[in-house]
Amino acid sequence: MDVVVDPGVPEEEARLLRENGDLLRRFRTGWVPDGRRKRLMGKVPDLAVIGVVTAVLFMAGVAMDGPLILAFVGLLAFLAYYIRLSAQQEESRAREIYDQSRWHEGRYVLTADLDEASQRLLKRARDAITTVTGSMVNAQGLLDDVRNAVMLPAQEWEIARLLAKLSDLRGKHRETVSHGLSPEVAAVAEPLAKALDSSEAAVVARVEALERYAMHVADAELAYIAHHQVEELRSRLPQYEELVAEAGATAVPELDRLTDDAGELEQALRRSLSSAHDAFRYLGQ
Fold it and tell me: Where, by residue number, does the polypeptide cross the bilayer (predicted)?
């Protein structure tokens, strides 16, 4: 289950929340891991446990005088130990995650808590962010990668946070009006519905700004790839010319235009990057 976390949450704690969406969902339903029991077995060194088990095996062998019984007792002892230890470790981890979820309540959003319209909007925003952060022009530092690393997670969180509030209120509003309204109540409910619509429109505007930025980055990416392809071809131009000369063929006019094409592509790349930078500045307003 996807979890969007406020970028202000320390990374280690944010990772714990992101990786345990299913547990967070269980906490929302009221389940609380038991943190009161002592976890002594988890603190006993394995060597000491093995010593205890060996003693049990020895006494069982002496008393029962049977190697098969001895092996069976040993198997049960180790099995019981590891099952108990595993359960205690799982419970301890669940308790740690529960404590973090309580501490950071309001600073993470479970995507499953969003209604369908909000989930679609969040997906659009995240797809746009992935287009930017996964691009070669971003990796090569041709965009403002430092600001991207700060601004884009902040935009994702703000959109998710607003959509969580919108989904919650919209669900409650629909539940209230689904039972039928008197004219007096309808007069009150209508402007509240409009408030929900206007809030959604504001979030849509944020998402569309991200998508415009991603579109400019995609254009810059295409220009970047084309620029490097032409540069590779141009670097081999002397070899082409040498081959033509040795073959006694007439020079191909297109070879002479490679330099001009490379220059034009470089200008196109600059324009695409400039457009992406302009879109980014608009996004930060």
Answer: 44-62, 68-85
The answer to whether 140 and 226 have CB atoms below 8 angstroms apart is no
Which sign, positive or negative, has the C-alpha torsion 5, 11, 16, 19? Answer: positive
Judgement on whether residues 37 and 136 belong to the same structural domain of the protein: no
Instruction: Decide: pTM greater than 0.90.
Output: no
> What torsion, rounded to 10 degrees, do the Cα atoms 227, 233, 234, 237 define?
-170
Res 30 pLDDT > 70: yes
Say how many C-beta atoms besides its own lie within 10 A of residue 36's C-beta.
5
Q: CA 213, CA 278: separation in Å to the nearest integer?
A: 9
Residue 159 lies in a domain: yes
Q: What 3-state class would DSSP assign to 108?
A: strand
Q: What are phi and psi of 141, to 5 degrees?
A: 80, 15
- Is the pLDDT at 65 greater than 60? The verdict is no
Q: Report whether pLDDT(283) > 60.
A: no
Count Cβ neighbours within 10 Å for each residue of 68-86 and write b for 16 or more, e otherwise.
eebeebbeebeeebeeebe
DSSP 8-state assignment for residue 43 = G
In a domain, 108, yes or no: no
Q: What band does 60 get if pLDDT is binned at 50, 70 and 90?
A: low
